[in-house]
Design brief:
Layout lengths: L7 E6 L2 E6 L11 H5 L1 H5 L7 E5 L5 H13 L2 E6 L4 H5 L3 H8 L3 E4 L5 H8 L5 E3 L10 H17 L5 E4 L6 H9 L3 E4 L6 H11 L8 E2 L13 H14 L8 H9 L2 H4 L3 E5 L7 H15 L1
Parallel strand pairs: 2-10, 3-4, 3-6, 4-5, 7-8, 7-10, 8-9
Antiparallel strand pairs: 1-2
Helix pairs in contact: 3-5, 7-8, 10-11
Length: about 300
Amino acid sequence: MKFTNSPMQEVSLNNRKIFIKRDDLLDINFSGNKARKFYYFYKNDFKNVKKLISYGSAQANSLYSMSVLAKLRNWDLDFYVKHISSYLKENPQGNYKASLENAANIIEKDVEDLNDYISKNLLQKDVLYIQEGGRVFEASFGIKILAQEIKDWQIKNNINDMIVCLPSGTGTTALFLQKYLDCEVITCSCVGKDDYLKKQFFMLESDENNHPLILKSTKNYHFGKLYLEFYEMYKKLKKETKIEFDLLYDPLGFITLINSKYFESDKTIVYIHQGGLLGNQSMIERYERKINFKK
């Protein structure tokens, strides 16, 4: 299985040269930041663990990656969600379907705080608990390797003035990249508002000077909701770069980047591909239904 050393690819977007760190080309089951975040749990020994527990949405990339991790380690997976839509239950697809096929137990629990519920009720000696989206210190193990790959590429290509850009859910990848890279790391909030993302940063790093820069979005977006500008950006990226990006994070990442001062600067831009392409199947179907309904 390939968890490291993804290629760097030069592309043109809006007639501007940028470099894409192709983490989508890592192992198909762990592509993107989940390959980096969960690398520690793949490489290290957990003799007493029999069950992996986490939580999130029923179509989360982390759900599928954890289902594969649990299968490889011969663990059970209990993944808690607040809600599963009736449509998804009746038409399993994407990360949800693939996770069920890997024997994941996807459990609906209507509580306000799933993290609090799990922490107080479910943590036994044989349980490994990974918080939503892989927001754990152990994620730094794989992200440090990613940072070193970027550094090695930078030195090899004699690049001085560089920024690294990626969208954030919990912000874990962006935070640890900023810790291990000498250049500036910029990101944007895809789940919740900017103050939510700052809160996630502080959970893992108390010194604000070590936090990445959060770029302001021109519009408030609700995570998982369909926005036609996201679908248009997805198609534009595919046409201009010949690379498929995910539909949840990357469109907002690129929209925010293009509208920032950095895109107009002379700095070398490295964009980290988020992987997560398995989830595109259900997202594209949702977009097509919305577009056809509007017609």
